[in-house]
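Consortium newsletter contribution from the modelling node. Members have asked for a concrete example of what our holo predictions look like. Here is one, prepared for the pyridoxal-5'-phosphate complex that several groups have been discussing at recent meetings.
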Amino acid sequence: MSGPELRVSLDAFADNLRAVRARVAPARPMLVVKDDAYGQGLEPIVARAAASGIDLFGSFDVATGLRVRAVAGASARIFAWQSTGEADITSALEADIDLGVGDRDFLRLVGAVAAREWRTARVHLKIDTGLHRNGVRPEHWSDALDEARALQRAGATRVVGIWSHIAEASDAEDDLARARFDSALTQAQDAGFTLELRHLAASAAAFAREEFRYDAVRIGAFAYGVRSAGGPGEEMLGVTPIAQLRARVLRVDPGEATIGVGWAHGLPAALAGRMRVRSTYGEHDVTGIGMDETRIASSAELSPGDEVIVFGPGAASATDLAETLGTVGEEILTRVSPLVGRTYL
Ligand SMILES: *Cc1c(COP(=O)(O)O)cnc(C)c1O
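And here is the predicted structure:
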């Protein structure tokens, strides 16, 4: 076997989940598993999360929600916030998936489909708190609540949650978003809605700021041990990266060696000359990244077949590499090609 391998420690993942839960309590952690659980492999991640007591999942789309349902079982609560049309709504109703709803037309469509199916759709209404990435604008919020109340009386939908998404880029902007969120919540409560799941924060705000936690927090990155670029370190967060990209030495030449991983596997070519990998003999500068091979500097010790850690525990983290490129660790991880074998410890 000469291909690279993404080795995922499910024990480290379970440790991270414990740290997340302790940090955000009494809010409930909703594990976000979009992009194939940030490249770590949806099914094993969901199975371990469910076994560790996670009962709330954020799937992004309905198709992913169905995969979560198949693994996590009937009692898991699954929230899909990106749904596109009637077929999606029908699937969500059949699989008992909560739907994120960010505009009134879509709310009406959900209501119409649910009425036709003789079901009640559980919806989480999204208020736009400033990101303008879908969500009901504050000036339309009370109309949306009226609509939701009518649909709720008819039994077609039930508003179980209100949510929004924030930039987590500056405290001041987030505070402003939170004020808008609070006023949307107050209006909903005044309109008679009983809310079970109010959720606003993702990893960074959930960890840093208690007042952003409400009933639930949507956690992706930190559960996988991916710290924010430019943010607090893993030690301070109490989480560790769970995935390690490994490759094997293919050839050894004077002063350098070639390892079997390249940009086609998802290692950004722009990292050539700007990262180091680790073997049992120590660190090696990466001098060139090709399609499926990478050259590393090496004195004599390496032999073909030796394993090298490209990133992850033992070498630079995905976020370390991301910082070199001015991006985020999630991007390094989700770029790891599906052709790279995943193994689980
Ligand atoms: C991806 C995503 C999250 C998780 O964000 P992290 O920073 O990875 O924890 C939360 N909410 C929404 C809407 C997302 O798209």
